[in-house]
Amino acid sequence: SVGADALASVGAPPAFAAVLGAAPAAWRQPLLDLDGLGARCGVQGRVFGSLAWQALTGEPYLTGASDLDVFFPLPGIAHAATLLDGLAAIDAHAPMHVDGELLRDDGAGVNWRELHAGLPDVAIKTADGVALGSAAGFLAGSVQ
Q1: I need a labelling partner for 69 at 20 to 30 A (CA). Which of 34, 89, 108, 142 fits?
Q2: Beta carbons within 10 angstroms of residue 66's beta carbon
């Protein structure tokens, strides 16, 4: 096991602007677009996965098959459709697959594609597991 003294820092995953320098050139515009989308919807998106590790460590983590892992806090219900439609549009034109989740304040998350598909029920992931729940309830911020 690694002791806490071995950690250089502890913090939130990096924001889109913080990973631009570590991202492949072709990924930079989609990252800027995602940052702008979040700003329009009143939420700060963040990066996790390979690009986050590459940005944080300076070590190579991305491969030609890497996707872009992102998450956004759940926006107010008035902005949810705008955020989901925007994610779909950016993903459709990006050179990489944009994967990720919308997260409620309690940490529960749902893959953005499931929410965008308009299905009545979605897989809601929590620290305790995964459960099928109402998409509308999740988007409304209810804890199920």
Answers
A1: 142
A2: 16
The answer to whether residue 85 is catalytic is no
Instruction: Give the CB-side neighbour count of residue 28, counting CA atoms within 13 A.
Output: 7
DSSP structure class, residue 92? H
Q: Where along the chain do its domains lie?
A: 12-139
Residue 38: other Cβ atoms inside 10 A: 23
Q: Is 51 exposed, middle or buried (0-12, 13-18, 19+ CB in 10 A)?
A: buried
104, 105, 139, 106: which is closest to 122 by C-alpha? Answer: 139
Whether the per-residue pLDDT at 8 is higher than 90: the answer is: no
* Catalytically annotated residue among 33, 35, 69, 85: 69
Query: Active-site residue among 35, 67, 99, 121?
Result: 67
- Residue 106 falls in the annotated catalytic set: no
pLDDT, tens digit, for every residue of 94-108?
Answer: 999 999 999 999 999
Please give the model's pTM, rounded to 2 decimal places.
Answer: 0.93
